[in-house]
């Protein structure tokens, strides 16, 4: 069997749902288990309605509920009955005046509960033998509401029981992603974007041949195509490489969510539901040999560098600990670090506590802050075997001022910071150099 997951944009309206259904229908011989996200924007809408209700702005909450009801009933008239219950819940929230994580999960669950019913109905009307499975009967999690973790053993046996006979009988199984329930039957969710996680868990539980994540991009690219018009699509990428890229906001998917599948050596494909003939990007456990030094150039903007200098650091110990404790106390994560004998530079992308952090750091030494820098990262499994990476990278951007460098901690990335205004030029030059020729086994033109 295979798992096919369709994201919010692949089920955002009747046309998108139809074309996703056709994509499934063309793959019936592979025994698809379909997992769908909520209709694009529905989860945000539901949670927004809940927040309004809990703040006693019931009117605003109901306007959102009306809009959602219209969208869903247009696709499936019987969805109306669920909105009766949803409105009762919203009223209850207004009366209680609070919106706990547990209730947030309950409200959000309407998104995938309904989208999966809609999708199954649509498949049936296309003449496909299909069965709808309620995720809350199969996906069993702990009770960390808002970001629950699946209990693999129970989930596996429940999924086998609920789906395997149908798959064997040639029936398509349709289930909502993201939502689940505790052993006691209380609704939970796997965290925002959690449908990918549902797909990975399902694939791992049922030993899928592969997992297909259908979304609205062609796959992972060698660079952001808005910056580099001739960016290539990466045909195959390792889990580690994909994880490095994810931090940089390659919004395709967060690889951690597909780890349960990758660990079992089940290949995960990222595919474009708007271009179903494309071959997408395959994520695998190990990287395949590649003639190019790197697979992709990623960039994260809006990075702040904090530098602390103090002669007290000279030959002293315990200084770094004191320094990091400051960040720890303010729940701020540090991404890159560079040290010299008397100074330490670190980068942050969350600056919500910056003021307080700087105040405390001043007790340790002089503090300097530079904002609006961009972190550029070359990602590729080959970096670890290859000398001369730095010379090549910096050679192609010789005119650009490098503010900070990190290399060695991870074998597969080489990162450095530049001024934000230099970022696009740097990316273009690096791309022109590193991808002047590409290994046809690993890269191809997108689309
Ligand atoms: N619908 C959920 C969200 O928007 C889960 C998902 O789409 O993966 O976060
Ligand atoms: Mg998603």
Task: Characterize the structure shown.
This protein has 447 residues and is α/β, with parallel strands linked by helices. The chain is 38% helix and 22% strand. The protein contains 14 helices and 19 strands. It has helices at 14-25, 42-54, 58-75, 80-96, 101-125, 135-138, 152-168, 195-205, 239-247, 259-263, 319-329, 354-361, 389-395, 423-434, and strands at residues 2-6, 32-36, 130-133, 140-141, 172-176, 179-182, 187-189, 210-215, 233-234, 236-238, 268-272, 281-284, 296-309, 337-339, 343-348, 366-379, 402-407, 413-419, 443-444. Strands 3-5-2-1-8-11-12-10 form an eight-stranded mixed sheet, with helices on both faces. The protein has a six-stranded antiparallel sheet with strand order 14-15-13-16-18-17. A three-stranded mixed sheet has the order 4-6-7. The radius of gyration is 24 Å and the shape is globular. 43% of the residues are buried. The mean pLDDT is 93.
């Amino acid at each position: 069997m295979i798992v096919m997951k369709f994201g919010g944009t692949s089920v955002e309206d009747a046309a998108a749902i139809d074309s996703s259904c056709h994509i499934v229908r063309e793959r019936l011989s592979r025994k698809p288990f379909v997992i769908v996200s909520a209709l694009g924007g529905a989860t945000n809408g539901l949670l927004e309605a809940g927040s309004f209700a809990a703040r006693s702005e019931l009117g605003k909450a109901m306007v959102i509920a009306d809009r959602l009801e219209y969208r869903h009933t247009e696709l499936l008239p019987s969805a109306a009955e669920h909105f009766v219950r949803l409105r009762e819940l919203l009223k209850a929230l207004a009366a209680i005046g609070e919106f706990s994580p547990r209730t947030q999960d309950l409200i959000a669950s309407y998104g995938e509960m309904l989208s999966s019913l809609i999708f199954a109905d649509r498949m049936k009307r296309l003449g496909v033998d299909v069965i709808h499975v309620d995720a809350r009967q199969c996906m069993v999690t702990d009770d960390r509401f808002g970001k629950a973790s699946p209990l693999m053993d129970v989930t596996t046996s429940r999924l086998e029981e609920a789906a395997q006979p149908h798959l064997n009988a040639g029936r398509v199984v349709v289930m909502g992603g993201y939502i689940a329930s505790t052993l006691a039957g209380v609704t939970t969710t796997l965290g925002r974007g959690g449908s990918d996680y549902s797909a990975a868990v399902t694939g791992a539980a049922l030993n899928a041949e592969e997992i297909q994540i259908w979304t609205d991009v062609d796959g992972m690219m060698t660079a952001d195509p808005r910056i580099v018009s001739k960016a290539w699509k990466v045909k195959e990428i390792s889990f580690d490489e994909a994880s490095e890229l994810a931090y940089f906001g390659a919004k395709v998917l967060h690889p951690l969510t597909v780890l349960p599948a990758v660990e079992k050596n089940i290949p995960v494909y990222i595919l474009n539901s708007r271009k179903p003939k494309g071959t997408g990007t395959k994520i695998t456990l190990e990287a395949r040999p590649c003639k190019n030094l790197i697979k992709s150039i990623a960039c994260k903007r809006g990075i702040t560098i904090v530098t602390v200098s103090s002669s007290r650091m000279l030959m002293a110990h315990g200084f770094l600990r004191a320094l990091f404790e400051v960040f720890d106390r303010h729940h701020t994560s540090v991404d890159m670090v560079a040290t010299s004998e008397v100074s330490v530079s670190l980068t942050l992308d969350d600056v919500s506590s910056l003021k307080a952090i700087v105040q405390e750091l001043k007790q340790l030494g002089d503090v300097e802050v530079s904002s609006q820098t961009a972190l550029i990262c070359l990602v590729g499994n080959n970096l670890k075997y290859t000398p001369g990476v730095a010379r090549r990278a910096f050679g192609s951007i010789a005119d650009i001022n490098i503010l900070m460098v990190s290399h060695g901690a991870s074998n597969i990335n080489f990162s450095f910071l530049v001024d934000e205004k230099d970022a696009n030029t740097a990316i273009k030059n690096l791309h022109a150099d590193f991808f002047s020729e590409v290994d046809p086994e690993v890269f191809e033109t997108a689309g």
